[in-house]
Design brief:
By secondary structure, the chain is an alpha/beta fold. The chain contains twelve helices and eight strands. Strands 3-2-1-4-5-6-7-8 form an eight-stranded mixed β-sheet, with helices on both faces. The chain is globular, with a radius of gyration of 20 Å.
Length: 290
């Protein structure tokens, strides 16, 4: 029986863990948010006091944390995975990070007899809860069978991106395409409305020509919501999306590009994200963010 571990129970991580708990016998979890851990425990998981304990109790361990610095902390911080690592442990990193972050983590973990792979996930929390994610993998041919079994719990589509780090690169590339389409949809929508045209005609034409994907079509529904409705919890959700998109686009710029003008292109999309999501943080005279 394979023992699974999960570290990082945010929106995506908690959804993936929920699916994992429902489809396996032993899952040990950890997060800095005790409420997220309590929810996982209520579904059948075992709670760990720290990442080291998760590692000690796992054969395959998933990490889904926001950024590279969090991965480093989970691996080698106080009570990090290094303290509970054992020969034969496999770590799958689901976070959207640079390929070099994956390669560095793999190099460090090799000293503990542990293998690390980039197993990035695409699709929202709804897909994650039912095991219908698209998984973008670096080094797929090298992944042990028990870890492949875990990936199959998460995914209904597994895409081999190439060697270690390529899964991370593919996730960033997919996100660049997504946010570029969102920015283009917003610009085109506003072009139509500013000239008195019907934006529904735009998306009908785009779809008929095979250029409108399901994700962008879903996003386009936001564009008809009046600005005055972007308040409260809904605005906070949109501001979160702005932050995620700008973080991912910054990663794309950090990779570097051989073609002239591409950094400027990415910077333009990055800077447009508050307009795309119609959500801004405005600082008042008192220094409060609204």
């Amino acid at each position: 029986m394979t023992r699974y571990g999960y570290i990082g129970l945010g929106d995506m991580g908690s959804a993936m863990a929920e699916n994992l708990i429902a489809n396996s016998d032993t899952v040990t979890v950890y997060d800095i948010n005790p409420k997220a851990v309590d929810t996982a425990v209520s579904l059948g998981a075992h709670a760990a006091a720290n990442p080291a304990e998760v590692a000690a109790e796992s054969d395959v361990l998933s990490i889904c944390v926001p950024a590279a610095e969090h991965i480093s902390a989970v691996l080698e911080g106080p009570d990090g995975i290094s303290g509970g690592a054992h020969e034969g442990l496999t770590i799958l990193i689901h976070s959207t990070v640079l390929p070099d972050t994956i390669i560095d983590a793999r190099t460090r973990a090799a000293e503990w007899g542990v293998q690390v792979f980039d197993v990035c996930v695409a699709g929202g929390a709804t897909q994650a809860r039912v095991g219908a994610q698209t998984v973008l993998v670096g080094g797929l041919e090298e992944i042990p069978a028990d870890a492949i079994g875990l990936i199959n719990i998460y995914a209904d589509e597994i895409i081999s991106a190439g060697p270690i780090g390529s899964g991370a690169a593919l996730k960033i590339a997919v996100n660049v395409m997504t946010y570029a389409q969102f920015a283009a949809a917003t610009t085109s929508h506003d072009l139509m409305t500013s000239t008195g045209g019907d934006p529904k005609a735009l998306f009908k034409a785009w779809k008929h020509m095979g250029q409108l994907g399901a994700l962008t079509e879903q996003f386009s529904l936001l564009l008809d919501i009046p600005s005055e409705h972007f308040t409260g919890e809904f605005k906070e959700k949109m501001l979160t999306q702005v932050g995620i998109s700008q973080k991912d686009l910054s990663l794309a710029m950090d990779i570097g590009w051989p073609r002239d003008g591409m950094i400027e292109f990415l910077q333009g999309i990055h800077d447009a994200m508050p307009n795309v999501y119609n959500s801004y943080t405005v600082e008042t005279e008192s220094g409060e963010n609204l």
